Amino acid sequence: MAKKVADLKNLWKNDYFKTAIAIVLVIAIVLVFFFGMQLVLGAAVPIRVVESGSMCVVQPLGKCDGWTHPFGQTLHIGDIIIIQKVNPEDLNANYPNSDIIVYKNPNGVTPIVHRIVSEQNINGTLYFKTKGDGNGPIFWPQTPNSYDNIPDSRGVPQNLVEGKVILRIPWFGWITLFMRGNSWALPVVIGIILLLIVVEFILPVAKAKRKKLAQQKEIPSQT
After folding, report:
1. Full DSSP string of 69-117
2. What CATH number does domain 47-173 carry, 2.130.10.10, 3.40.50.300, 2.10.109.10, 1.10.1740.10?
3. For 129-150, what is each residue's pLDDT tens digit?
4. What pTM does this model have?
């Protein structure tokens, strides 16, 4: 038992072991944070990145990059959005101060992020007509001339609504967009990680072995 305790103490003093533990802890914290947000917010995917400029009201006047209007009331490309699952009946449809919702795209994989313009109840099911704040010719917060111009015929059915946007974090989503938009980015990142592993773990171990062998050769043999 004493030997096992001594071995554990020696292992804990090892710098490589401490580094490995730190990496595991970082990964564990990220996973706990993500699944914790799922539990608290109720959304299957509580964090997403804004990929298009449909919600950006500066789009007709300039580049929708989030740098010139980082804390605007609408969304910019590269924003990270926090999504909370809500009861459809509790959504605010009072345009222009209505909720921004995330809903499944019937014609694609990537969900759509739009602001509610109006709602209607058809046979007990809520339908939400939505519009991107930056989709012209009428831009948020101006009221569209006619709700009939909104692309949805009846609106987005409540069963497609994933949740509403409760927070936007500017800029940081550009890291994800950069990774997606450049086929070489992911291999480069993986290569850097492997290089760090080699420098941090493999090279020191190899160097220590060479040093030990050199010391053994220097010791004169006993006769």
Report:
1. STT-SS--TT-EEEEE---GGG----TTSPPEEEE--TTSSS-EEEEEE
2. 2.10.109.10
3. 999 988 878 888 887 766 655 6
4. 0.70
